[in-house]
């Protein structure tokens, strides 16, 4: 029975979105170029005369050069291990990196995490963004489906489908694990079909829109009260 279940569980591989990839590269590169130029000419903008410019430049540019070196070294290091492909199959999720190595999160490894007493599959936050988390050997492991945690060689356009398939694999092959219901709600995944739940997503968007509308209305009301006092 388990063997039949594994045969029915077809692997899913990430798909590159080249339009978004090049848009991100172009706009990201343009922003970096503007920042680079602004930092390069900063001493000329703040110095009132030549003597001050010389003194400030002697102190500023060595620090600027070290900062630029560290930044580009960091980018080069991250790109060497950037994700080039993600595959979800009956064993788990596999992250294929640019340097040829593979990082695996297998269903057989999953268990409890010290950070979650009730659920073994749950959500955690990073930079105000919900991320799927699982427990392995008591540690919390964040599972990101677009490679943004360590970088990616391209934009992955089927990240939602990869996430849903991974969760489906947990339900199929590790029914002993408890999944936080908020996972299905936040990622708009149908808990029975493991597909994108459009109604749930639109309801989620509507709730967010109402919350933002209330905040804007409160802000406008506060500004109005301040202006008439």
TrEMBL record:
- Superkingdom assignment: Bacteria
Q: Where do the TM regions start and end?
A: 22-46, 52-72, 208-228
Keywords, A to Z? Membrane, Transmembrane, Transmembrane helix
Write the protein's name. Answer: Uncharacterized protein
**Source species, please?**
Chryseobacterium ureilyticum
